[in-house]
Specification:
The protein is mainly alpha-helical and 437 residues long. It has 3 domains: 59 residues, no CATH class; 113 residues, DNA polymerase, domain 1, CATH 1.10.150.130; 143 residues, no CATH class. It contains 15 helices and 11 strands. The strands form 4 sheets. A 3-stranded antiparallel sheet has the order 1-4-5, covered by helices on one side. Strands 6-7-8 form a 3-stranded antiparallel sheet, with no helix packed on it. A hairpin with a 5-residue loop joins β4 and β5. α3 runs antiparallel to α4, α5 runs antiparallel to α6 and α8 packs across α12. It is elongated.
Length: 437
């Protein structure tokens, strides 16, 4: 029977000794294999023993299927992970592939974490080190959300290692988010109809009033231009509040996207949406009339119909609309600026921004009794739980209205009749009267 073993030595090439040690393995089947190891002899001997042990285990059917993955550089695993993400094979429920910008963000975040961990192989990944690194980053200024986003990527990467038979277990499966419902970064405010009306009115008059206050000799032409911009911004808010379109989607609307006939609607192009899916959003008739007025004003300014590819809201820029809404909300007295947070907050501490109008739509629709499925489709959510748990809010006024509709028992109603005296059935009988035996 052939005996197995190994030896390490240094070769001589052209009269010079190699810096690296060479491993010679004698396998149980008599085969001899040679491979170049390290410059350190102890490390080379340890590597030779590891290779021999793997060969002997394979000979008797105990081969470690993850040995190749452990020797593969972590950089190559990351490339394969990103390729699987790009192909949409990481999650069964994924309906669209991630954007190139998101892929680059994932790569930067994971490479940053691996660099902090000093990890170059899968075997260098462990949860204790990750927890320490994340705690240090939070102490250095990371928010809980940023910490949880990085932890989620690590869990996803570890899950993929298992699914792709590169590791026996997810090294990050116990890495949990730190944020609770009470520690969310912020919660948005769903505007009431009265608050929405105040915001619209503020958009129409704020610019003119504030400019006239500091420029008492402003020309009528310039004030008319400010009124036109304010009117367009007011319509912008109303379209946002009744369609649920996001900021980029609103700023990308062109006249060709609008159908302003008897049944007005917006055809949202796939290239402008977050999910890269085309959608049709029905509009209330009054909002269609309002958009027709916007087009009429634009036609008058141009001396003809605006081009089909021209943006609908030409005076509302993607960059400045957030600041304009902040000023309008404060002018309308529906919120106050929090200097520390840099946002407009209500008295309850909820944020008012453009995305809050999306929650306004969900809340108003739920209050009028719109079927949940219709609301989910109008909001363009893949999961109804996002619609009902994240965007839809329950207001105390709406709760009060519905509580009053609950049927009351007859004894609790004001009927004008005396309530029967229950205690009369238990009165003591007159003196001398027998009560029975």
């Amino acid at each position: 029977m052939n005996s197995s073993g190994f030896s390490v030595f240094k070769r001589r090439r052209n009269g010079k000794q190699d810096r690296r040690w060479t491993i010679e393995l004698r396998l149980p089947n008599g085969t001899i294999r040679q491979s170049v190891a390290f410059t350190d002899k102890a490390a080379s001997i340890q590597r030779a023993a590891q290779l021999l042990r793997e060969a002997e285990r394979k000979e008797v059917g105990l081969h470690d299927q993850f040995s190749g993955a452990r020797r593969t550089p972590l950089r190559e695993h990351l490339d394969a992970f990103l390729l699987a993400m790009a192909n949409g094979t990481l999650a069964k429920r994924r309906r669209s592939r991630p954007t190139a910008a998101w892929m680059e963000r994932v790569r930067r975040r994971l490479e940053f974490l691996f660099r902090l961990l000093g990890a170059s192989r899968i075997e260098h990944l462990n949860q204790a080190d990750v927890e320490r690194i994340l705690s240090e980053r939070v102490a250095a200024g990371w928010s809980d959300k940023t910490r949880d986003d990085h932890a989620a990527l690590l869990r996803q990467f570890g899950g993929w290692l298992v699914d792709d038979v590169r590791a026996s277990a997810n090294p990050f499966h116990r890495l949990r988010p730190t944020r609770s419902e009470a520690s969310k970064t912020f919660r948005r405010h769903a505007l009431t109809v009265a608050e929405l009306e105040a915001l619209i009115a503020a958009a129409e008059v704020r610019g003119v009033q504030e400019y006239a206050k500091v420029n008492p000799y402003a020309t009528a032409k310039h004030l008319d231009e400010l009124r036109a911009k304010g009117f367009e911004r007011a319509v912008f808010y109303q379209v946002a509040a009744y369609t649920g379109l996001r900021r980029r989607e609103l700023c990308s609307l062109v006249w060709d996207d609008l159908q302003l006939g008897a049944e007005p609607a917006i055809e949202v192009r796939a290239g402008t949406t977050k999910t890269k899916r085309r959608a049709r959003l029905e509009l209330p008739a009054w909002l269609g009339t309002l958009l027709l007025e916007v087009r009429g004003r634009r036609t008058k300014a141009l001396g003809g119909l605006p081009p089909a590819t021209e943006r609908v809201f030409v005076a509302t820029s993607y960059r400045h609309v957030t600041e304009q809404l902040r000023l309008d909300a404060v002018f309308a007295r529906i919120g106050r600026v929090d200097a520390e947070a840099g946002r407009v907050l209500t008295d309850a501490g909820k944020v008012i921004d453009l995305h809050a109008l999306r929650g306004t739509l969900a809340t108003l629709a739920a209050e009028i009794g719109m079927p949940v499925k219709l609301l989910q489709q109008h909001m363009r959510h893949s999961d109804v739980r996002i619609t009902m748990e994240v965007y839809t809010q329950v207001r105390s006024t709406a709760m009060r209205e519905h509580v009053e509709l609950l049927p009351a028992p007859r004894s609790g109603r004001a009927s004008g009749r005396a309530t029967p005296d229950v205690a009369s059935d238990c009165q003591t009988p007159p003196s001398g009267e027998r009560t029975g035996t």
